[in-house]
């Protein structure tokens, strides 16, 4: 009635996603963790006293810590779900404002 059934059924599957080399992933993860730990240690060494904020200025201090935290946040985003090309684009856009903020902060701190 319906005719002959095919003898063999062929399926097409999507290829599994390619993952980066495990050494690259572990190296980047260790850099992110090291950066976060170094940032936290430096915060405790500075003791975040109000003299620094009064000397440099509140806005400059908050921008300084915001630049560092946004960079670390970008690293965490890359580690969690981002890809290298998008991360480098965002990092390139963040570079000039970050350099200007950091330069102003350290000039006022010196």
Describe the structure.
With 110 residues, this protein is mostly helical. The protein has one domain (23-109). Helix content is 74%, strand content 0%. It contains 4 helices and no strands. The chain has helices at 22-46, 50-56, 58-80, 84-109. Helix 1 runs antiparallel to helix 3 (58-80), helix 2 (50-56) crosses helix 3 (58-80) and helix 3 packs antiparallel against helix 4 (84-109). The longest helix has 26 residues, at 84-109. The model has no long low-confidence stretch (mean pLDDT 80).
What is the succession of H and E elements? HHHH
Average pLDDT score: 80
The termini sit apart by: 91 Å
How many helices? 4
Q: Which structural class do you get from the secondary structure elements?
A: mainly alpha
Total strand segments: 0
As a whole number of angstroms, the C-alpha radius of gyration is: 24 Å
**What are the segments in which pLDDT stays under 50 over at least 5 consecutive residues?**
none
The biggest beta sheet is recorded as:
none
- What is the 3D shape? elongated
- Share of helix, binned: over 70%
The total tally of domains equals: 1
* Strand content bin: under 5%
What labels would you give this structure?
mainly alpha; 0% strand
Describe this structure in a few short sentences.
The protein is built from four helices and no strands.
Question: What is this structure's SSE topology?
Answer:
Elements: H1 22-46, H2 50-56, H3 58-80, H4 84-109
Helix pairs in contact: 1-3, 2-3, 3-4
